[in-house]
Amino acid sequence: MDDYETMRVDVVDKKKVYKNIFRDHGHELSIKESYDLVLKNNKGESTKYIYETADLFLKTKDALETQKEIIIKPFEESPLF
Fold this sequence. Notes:
Largest sheet: 2 strands, antiparallel
Distance between the termini: 31 Å
Strand content: 5-15%
Shape: flat
Oligomer: single chain
Helix content: 40-55%
């Protein structure tokens, strides 16, 4: 992914490029969806859900940048907690 505008996907010998007309960081949609979620679920999400969602995002980013397989462990196995 390049600056939230262009994304290239390489699958073996095939390359596909996706390009947005605008650089969409998704901030507006994220803020609106966060607000809607709070209205529906006053408790918020569990620490486990938040941790695993963030970890999945960051590890996926690392895997794409390094082009290596990664292992994602569940929240309970994390050495941080």
